């Protein structure tokens, strides 16, 4: 049975073959290949239709310009002509962007058979299993890799993310802690510190302070935000607000910092200050439903139910699955 990707490829190459034909409607998608910056590569492909590298170059260029559907056809052609490791990795990424995870699994199976020594393909397969909701298969794959090499920090990191998605916080902390100990990357540090902060573990502060001390360019915002989360989760709201303010000073567009700061005011029953903060959050990003929902909470506490309903309705219009906003509207409306 011909899979969906093959059908798309057949359709695409039929269209490319008919690129000279035009009707009264819009230009076909293939016309983009006849224009810069793709035209030169398209001409070369006509002259050398069996050159896998030319298709790979055009696919990469299409990906860079967000033409991912067109890029998939060229990745497929390049892989068929000359299946190389780098082609497999790029093609796999392309299929992930397109949400074609079943096709991605098939490709990665082929890659693992052709290049059994490349662990990246196994990690990508684990990631794909996780995206498909097959967490047990992903975990089994990661564990088999770690049994062979316990120093594989990338796989410890991927396992940590998987355990976090499975709501197993202790296991996630353990795995991310091993990844960070083996390779102290800031990416790993932020993930680990955030889990510590959500758990109310002051180890979050130590990790964040280390990053802040090393941040000579003063470019990182996340350490302050994570410290704020820790203080909020341990009931130290005034300290949390200090951290959120530090976060906002570095990046005034950091909407989540405003929202968490507003919640900290709300928890202290400082509803006017909380409301002002949520209004600022909705000014920075007028598409964030949480800003309007929490503004509604403030109005409700201030006995201004009409204003509360208006904000709850705005939150619900931005997120139709916002159950708390819908419940609040039903509670307040006569």
Summarize this entry quickly.
It contains 19 helices and no strands. It has about 325 residues and is an all-alpha fold.
Q: Would you kindly provide a written description of the structure presented here, covering whatever features stand out?
A:
There is one protein chain. With 334 residues, the chain is mainly alpha-helical. Among the domains are: 1-16 and 28-80 and 89-111 and 122-133, Serine Threonine Protein Phosphatase 5, Tetratricopeptide repeat, CATH 1.25.40; 273-334, Serine Threonine Protein Phosphatase 5, Tetratricopeptide repeat (Alpha Horseshoe), CATH 1.25.40. The protein contains 19 helices and no strands. Helix 2 (39-47) runs antiparallel to helix 3, helix 13 (222-233) packs parallel to helix 15 (255-267) and helix 16 (271-284) runs antiparallel to helix 17 (289-301). The model is unreliable at 1-26 (pLDDT under 50).
**What is the helix content?**
over 70%
Mass-distribution shape = globular
Strand content: under 5%
Point out poorly predicted stretches.
1-26
* CATH class category name of the domain at 1-16 and 28-80 and 89-111 and 122-133: Mainly Alpha
Number of strands: 0
**What's the gyration radius in Å?**
25 Å
What is the SS-derived class?
mainly alpha
CATH architecture type of the domain at 1-16 and 28-80 and 89-111 and 122-133: Alpha Horseshoe
- The number of helices is 19
* Distance between the amino and carboxyl termini: 58 Å
- What is the string of helix and strand elements? HHHHHHHHHHHHHHHHHHH
State the major sheet.
none
CATH fold annotation of the domain at 1-16 and 28-80 and 89-111 and 122-133? Serine Threonine Protein Phosphatase 5, Tetratricopeptide repeat
Residue-averaged pLDDT: 92
